[in-house]
Amino acid sequence: MTVAVATVLSTSFADALKRTRESLAQNGFRVTNEVDVTETINQKHAVGMERYLILDACHPQFVTGQAGETELRLVCNVVVRVDPATVGNVIVEVMNPCVLSGGSDGVAQSDIAGQVGVALRAVIDGLAARDEGVTNLPG
């Protein structure tokens, strides 16, 4: 996985979002937060834009802590957005956690980021496997 990995789905935004949530769940991720970028831009700047949603996802395997204390070691942003260049396409993309973590926190953090990266790639590959109209973007 390079800087990011993405796929293009030939479907509606609602269906792409549903399928992304399903693929995340099938690969052990839980969505912890959503940011509706379209709504935020519209409210703050009164400018319309294509649908754009960020899902914050974490994998429980990479959460540490003891009784009552939980530390998220890595939260991933999964972007689901309408392709402004092609009607009927939706792009789903994730950043490589190894790039985001920078590897500066030592080998343990780098190893965790690598494992999460593999799981995120499985999310994208799961989306691609379900649709003949899917294009995997380089990454």
UniProtKB/TrEMBL annotation:
Concerning CDD domains, the annotation shows: DUF302
Against SUPFAM superfamilies, the record matches this protein to:
TT1751-like (SSF103247)
Per its record, how is this protein called by name? DUF302 domain-containing protein
Native organism is Mycobacterium aquaticum
